[in-house]
Design brief:
Blueprint: E1 21-25, H1 28-38, H2 47-69, E2 82-87, E3 92-97, H3 104-112, H4 119-128, H5 131-136, E4 152-160, E5 168-172, E6 177-182, E7 189-196, H6 206-216, E8 224-227, E9 234-235, H7 252-263, E10 271-277, E11 283-289, E12 305-310, E13 313-316, E14 331-336, H8 345-348, H9 352-375, H10 377-391, H11 393-397, H12 402-408, E15 410-413, E16 421-422, H13 423-428, E17 437-441, H14 455-459, E18 465-467, H15 472-479, E19 481-482, E20 485-489, H16 520-534, E21 540-543, E22 552-555, H17 563-571, E23 582-585, H18 590-602, H19 606-622, H20 630-646
Parallel strand pairs: 2-8, 12-14, 17-18, 17-20, 21-23
Antiparallel strand pairs: 1-6, 2-3, 3-7, 4-5, 4-7, 5-6, 8-9, 10-11, 11-14, 12-13, 15-16, 15-18, 19-20, 22-23
């Protein structure tokens, strides 16, 4: 069964008057899920058996671990296995294990609710996607048991938890309710009986069962046996741990099967990392990089899904410290021969050997990613699309691996278009005299490439990296530089572009026509008037070298918080000290020149004060900020248009 910890220990239930059985209502999400399962038209229904076998295997792993400290739990039945049997006359298919089993409360929790997050996302995918893909995703969302209702009109579970005296019988037709009652016949483990619909009778065919097991479950590291009437039990799989085999003896198909099992993801992995370390300590790791994002990739818990084994005994899937948060997309197993078998989950994180294993894994994974980036840049671009934002968390968190991670990092830029650009490629293309790596923080969907702050850099042929992931705001202040070149935000401080030669604007281009030039003193008067009008609303008003097409823009002063970072903090309701911004004026724009000429002729006026506020509001709009007084903006704009049209 899916025996993950649950958020709600029991669903709302309604007990009947019967003394023998209790009737419970399914959690609302389970009811929705079952409705989709029962009415499914999936072609690949085979996966229900894969999921039941995987759950049975996990139950046996949990018992093997528990028996280390309580050997009496397996007394009289220590050969753990999964058994499949078919009864054509009764039209039932039975999957049985002699693993950990469940008690009453665990039956209610594990088979009545869905604990893991992502249920709503899964339901949405099932409704919107195609059946074949959706069916293969069932295991990823921790709902594998319920796939039985794709083929069964009724499901029964007979189970007894290891060490308990009482057994239980769970039953449901998948229609909103399930019942539980005591059952003295239930043996340790779980026996799941599927009453198949008439249209699904072919799943009782031994040849079909053999094919499903060989296709999906050959890697399971305990025997999967088929019982046929009058015949000796037949073992259908190799029953050996895949990771213990030599690399050369593992086929691509076997890797794919094992990946589907441990990752709960369809298809084939993007990359495989098989490690066997010997020396002062010994461990084996079989890890996979998925070719798609797991649904919980950005869950705040940042929990990895790499399983820890000790001498082939499953210990836990939640071993803190085994894989760092920035590699949480990895799937697979780590098997260590040097950890004690009776190690507890609570003391694992304090074991110094675990830190050494983690360090070795990180180095190997990053090394494999680096090879991929060099040999298959197009494939690496797909990986970066999926996991780049997560990998960059390591630049902030892991100083020991920062250099390698920064070499792997990819960015879009002012000149790269859809192509990903490495920092080495950016540095190699820097023009003479450029001594910093320029970047712009913002939202890709909001059109970061249209930002007015880019105009001066574009005119001078200087590339600018786009920092569009929230994590960029955390690693940039930590990394500070790459290969001796400091990172510099183009929205902080002065642009310092005067040392680069800009292309001369053409007549009539973007409001910046060449022709009669406004004197510097007239422009200074305009800047002084705007500064006086806006007062405390801005930190400063100054002439800009970064603008070529837009009349104004906002920038952060040197040392102040980046504007995009401040917006992110506000969006997440984090405390932030609001910094007043610097308003920069484009002295070559036709609008600012006209305003400067008006100041020179008439001095201060109400019309010029309105223009100052309109320029400031325009700069705010360009930054995607909400205007503090939309009514005042509308009034000033209407007044200006009225005067212009009446002239």
């Amino acid at each position: 069964m899916d025996e993950a910890p649950v958020e709600e220990t029991t669903p709302e239930s309604a007990k009947t008057a019967s003394a023998k059985a209790e009737t419970h209502e399914f959690q609302a999400e389970v009811s929705k899920l079952l409705d989709l399962m029962i009415n499914s038209l999936y072609k690949e229904k085979d996966i229900f058996l894969r999921e039941l076998i995987a759950n049975a295997s996990d139950a046996c792993d949990k018992l093997r671990y528990a028996a280390i400290t309580e050997p009496e739990l397996t007394a009289g039945d220590s050969d753990l296995k999964v058994t499949i049997s078919a009864d054509k006359d009764a039209r039932t298919l039975t999957v049985q294990d002699n693993g950990i089993g469940m008690n009453h409360d665990e039956l209610v929790a594990n088979l009545g609710t869905i604990a893991r997050s992502g249920t709503e996302a899964f339901l949405k995918i099932m409704k919107e996607g195609d059946g074949e893909t959706d069916a293969n995703l069932i295991g990823q969302f921790g709902v594998g048991f319920y796939s039985a209702f794709m083929v069964a009109s009724k499901v029964e579970v007979f189970t007894r938890r290891a060490g308990d005296e009482t057994g239980w019988h769970w039953e449901s037709k998948g229609r909103g309710k399930f019942s539980i009652q005591e059952d003295a016949s239930a043996e340790r483990g779980a026996r799941i009986v599927l009453h198949l619909r008439k249209a699904e009778e072919d799943f009782l065919d031994p040849m079909r069962i053999r094919h499903i097991v060989s296709t999906y479950s050959d890697h399971i590291a305990l025997p999967i046996q088929l019982l046929e009437d009058g015949k000796e039990a037949e073992t259908l799989n190799e029953g050996s741990a895949l990771w213990t085999r030599p690399v050369s003896e593992i086929t691509e198909e076997q890797h794919n099967e094992f990946y589907n099992h441990v990752a709960h993801l369809p298809g084939a992995p993007w990359a495989t990392v098989h490690v066997h370390a010997e020396g002062r300590f010994e461990y084996t790791a079989l890890l996979y990089v998925p070719d798609m994002r797991p649904f919980d990739l950005f869950d705040p818990a940042r929990q990895h899904r790499v399983r820890l084994y000790v001498k082939r005994v499953f210990i836990t899937e939640e071993c803190e410290g085994l894989v760092p948060g920035f590699l949480r997309f990895m799937r697979g197993i780590v098997d260590c021969a040097d950890l004690p078998l009776n190690v507890s989950r609570e003391t694992l994180q304090h074991n110094p050997l675990l830190a050494k294993i983690s360090s070795g894994l990180v180095k190997r994974i990053l090394s494999e990613l680096e090879k991929k980036a060099k040999k298959e840049p197009e494939a690496f671009a797909e990986f970066w699309d999926n996991f780049g934002a997560v990998l960059k968390e390591g630049i902030y968190e892991e100083s020991d691996h920062r250099d390698k991670l920064m070499k792997l990092a990819r960015f879009h830029s002012l000149t790269s278009g859809e192509k990903w650009l490495s920092l080495d490629e950016y540095a190699a293309a820097m023009p003479e005299g450029q001594d910093a790596i320029y970047y712009l923080s913002g939202d890709a969907e909001a059109g970061i490439d249209k930002s007015p702050q880019l105009e001066g850099f574009k005119a001078r042929g200087i590339d600018v990296l786009f920092m569009t992931d929230p994590v960029d705001q955390f690693w940039l202040p930590t990394a500070t530089e790459y290969d001796g070149k400091p990172f510099r935000s183009i929205t902080q401080g002065s642009a310092d572009l005067d040392k680069f030669e800009a292309a001369k604007p053409e007549d009539g281009a973007d409001g910046c026509a060449a022709g009669a030039q406004t004197s510097e003193s007239d422009m200074d008067k305009l800047i002084a008037l705007i500064k006086l009008t806006l007062g405390e609303e801005v930190k400063d008003v100054r002439s800009s070298s970064r603008l070529t097409e837009s009349p104004v823009c906002l920038v952060a002063d040197e040392g102040d918080v980046d504007m995009h970072f401040e917006r992110l903090l506000r969006q997440h309701q984090q405390p932030v000290m609001g910094h007043k911004r610097v308003l920069e004026i484009n002295p070559g724009h036709a609008l600012t020149r006209a305003l400067a000429d008006l100041v020179n002729r008439e001095g201060a006026s109400e019309a010029l004060e309105d223009a100052a506020h309109l320029l400031f509001d325009q700069a705010r709009i360009l930054e995607g900020e909400t205007l503090p007084d939309p009514a005042a903006f509308s009034r000033r704009l209407a007044g200006l248009l009225t005067k212009t049209l009446s002239a």
